[in-house]
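Q: Could you fold this chain for me?
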Amino acid sequence: MKIGFVSLGCAKNLVDTEVMLKILTDAGYEITPEDTEADVIIVNTCGFIQSAKEEAIENILDVAWLKKHKNLKGIIATGCLVERYREEILREMPEVDAALGTGSYHKIAEAVAAVARGEKYTSFEDKDKAPLGGERVLTTPDYTAYLKIAEGCDNRCTYCAIPLIRGRMRSRTIEDLVAEAKNLEDLGVKELNLIAQDTTRYGLDLYGRYMLPELIRAICRETNIPWIRLLYLYPDKMTDELIAEIRDNDRVCKYVDLPIQHINDRVLARMNRHGGSDIVRDAVRRVRAEIPDVTLRTTVIVGFPGESEDEFAELCEFIKEMKFDRLGAFAYSPEEGTAAADYPDQIDEQVKQDRCDAVMRVQLGVSEAAMQEKIGRTLTVLCEGYDAAAGVQFGRSAADAPDVDGKIYFTAKKKLPAGVFVQVKITEALDYDLFGEAEQK
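A: Sure. Below is the predicted structure, expressed as structure tokens.
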């Protein structure tokens, strides 16, 4: 049997997809990238916000077309949307033949076997007891990979459904993570991106204290992976020890992904964010002061229930003031089961979208100025490939995370393979991308 995969949502979901791929290949199934050839297609869904839920449903319906017109025998839905709507998924979507919640990824081979027999199959095991980690089949390019260091979240932000979907936070042991990092290095990985719902909280449940700096040191002792990138660092947990580790460790990218969500104290309190504006400002100030040439990325939510025009204006002024190198803005999405969804002062959808657009206009000006400052500099770039249409190579610097940030396009005397590091002198700046020339001997 041939199995196809559609993986939606965040990098953490992608890691779950890769674990399922390994389970199925070990069970003897063939994985195909061509959905028209598949006997069974697995859609690993996201269900974080409304747009993600709509995307998941659209993908399932698109795949269902193959049942009528091609060889497809079954559809298996897995992941966050399925966990969230476990009662409705099979009832409302008869196209789906099997459903696995976030605690049941390890049951994927059983689900495929059941669908092959023409049977319906569901599994929703306790997400707080599900296996952590596991061997994977990498779907990222050989040179880069994600390392999921924990599952779930304990922060309980009022807008967020992740604790309902993924359960409480559970860290993996340092020994387990180091072993996986070594395996990834053996596969050729040169950029290791550490991820969790709250990466800074790593180890608190296992060791009684924040252990991210110790995990970084352990990975560096046992591997030679040149780039280690930290994603999803929370302002209230940016300890002096962690900042010093980022600053002093040559293999840690000077890249701090610090989701702040807002800056107004009343809005932050209603979001149940840990720490107010003083904590956010202090974290940004200390990171900038302690880590030379650091790249700061953040995310904000606009249109949260009750956000006034003055509070939104305060956020815009803060963005202008702080000059984040990277910023993503999201219009608030009310999610069933979260406290904020029941707040009485919901904001009109058009107002939310207008505010989101306004924030990104502010950030565009900030980004353009920051990119202009890079002209004339020489950056170390991880080559990712060759754009045949444009006749240029492209890649990323340590200041650019995969999937979410821009690219560096550059000319070279000879075509370079993906996965090599090259020095590129920047000659031109675009809105979010850079252009340059490779310095080759």
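A (continued): The mean pLDDT is 94.
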